[in-house]
């Protein structure tokens, strides 16, 4: 897997100024031809300017136009294999596998960059000090909340997932000052998550957000902001699949960061958790005799 420069361009295109956005569109439409262009020709094709080409390269994290051409050349195989587009009608199964693998690899790699170590450290400290944790998300993010509960409850943390917003609101209202609310929203703009986060703050509950790496409302509201890679959501929603994987990958990182910091106590709790499951199956065997 190479640098996936086309995925980076797709992710950042929506946030570029118009002069740079037009350049992105030309590159995405015919990346192979761009390899053989100079900056002036690219600017002309995009109805933009050579200065805008340089700004565009810097906006997507490259040193300049030569760097862009080098990365496109390095990723020529992926471009020719057409693995950077969304799933299309009648897509071959092997091609579907390639596209999902490329997108997943890219979003995991980018999440490693965007998940700030300081924020992770602050979050794990809040997890440790919390009396109870309320993770909440809607849609696919609710699955992430349940995954968080499954992991952290096994190491002794009290984690409660409440999808009924009325019940969760009342729980936050009577929570003590060690309670913690974890708002999960890929885009960071879900009204339900925003409303509950604001309420948690009003009730004196500590807050953490898990969103994609954009300027979004949810990340500005919380005490700690955790960010995963930006994953677009194309028509067939493969982006939703990849963003879900990014969020769950971030939960894994948080879990292992927590266990590393509080190793002995966590291992003891995990052992007890495993013993409880073994004991449960022994009960099954007893009643099936």
TrEMBL record:
Keywords attached to this entry: DNA-binding, Transcription, Transcription regulation
Record GO biological process: carbohydrate derivative metabolic process
An example Gene Ontology molecular-function term: carbohydrate derivative binding
Residues in HTH rpiR-type domain copies: 3-79
Domain SIS: 123-264
InterPro entries: Homeodomain-like_sf, HTH_RpiR, RpiR-like, RpiR-like_SIS, SIS_dom, SIS_dom_sf, WH-like_DNA-bd_sf
Pfam families: HTH_6, SIS
PROSITE patterns: HTH_RPIR, SIS
Protein name, as recorded: Transcriptional regulator, RpiR family
Lineage start: Bacteria, Bacillati, Bacillota, Bacilli, Lactobacillales
């Amino acid at each position: 897997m190479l640098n996936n420069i086309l995925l980076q361009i797709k992710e950042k295109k929506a946030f570029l100024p118009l002069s740079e956005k037009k350049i992105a569109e030309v590159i995405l439409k015919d990346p192979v031809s761009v390899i053989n262009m100079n900056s002036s020709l690219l600017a002309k094709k995009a109805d933009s300017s050579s200065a805008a080409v340089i700004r565009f390269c810097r906006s997507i994290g490259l040193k300049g136009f030569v760097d862009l051409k080098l990365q496109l050349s390095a990723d020529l195989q992926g471009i020719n294999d057409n693995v950077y587009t969304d799933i299309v009608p009648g897509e071959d199964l092997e091609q579907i596998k390639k596209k999902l693998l490329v997108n997943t690899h890219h979003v995991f790699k980018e999440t490693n960059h965007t998940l700030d170590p300081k924020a992770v450290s602050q979050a794990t400290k809040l997890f440790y000090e919390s009396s109870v944790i309320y993770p909440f998300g809607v849609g696919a993010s609710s699955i992430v909340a349940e995954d968080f509960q499954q992991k952290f409850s096994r190491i002794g943390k009290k984690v409660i997932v409440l999808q009924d917003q009325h019940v969760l609101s009342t729980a936050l209202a009577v929570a003590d000052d060690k309670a913690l609310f974890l708002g999960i929203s890929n885009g960071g703009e879900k009204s339900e998550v925003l409303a509950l986060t604001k309420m948690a703050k009003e009730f004196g509950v500590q807050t953490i957000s898990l969103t994609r790496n954009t300027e979004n409302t949810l990340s500005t509201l919380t005490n700690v902001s955790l960010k995963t890679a930006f994953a677009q959501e194309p028509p067939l929603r493969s982006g939703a699949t990849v963003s879900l994987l990014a969020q769950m990958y971030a939960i894994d990182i948080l879990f292992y960061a927590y266990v590393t910091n509080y190793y002995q106590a966590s291992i003891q709790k995990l052992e007890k958790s495993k013993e409880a499951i073994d004991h449960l199956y022994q009960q099954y065997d007893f009643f099936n005799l």
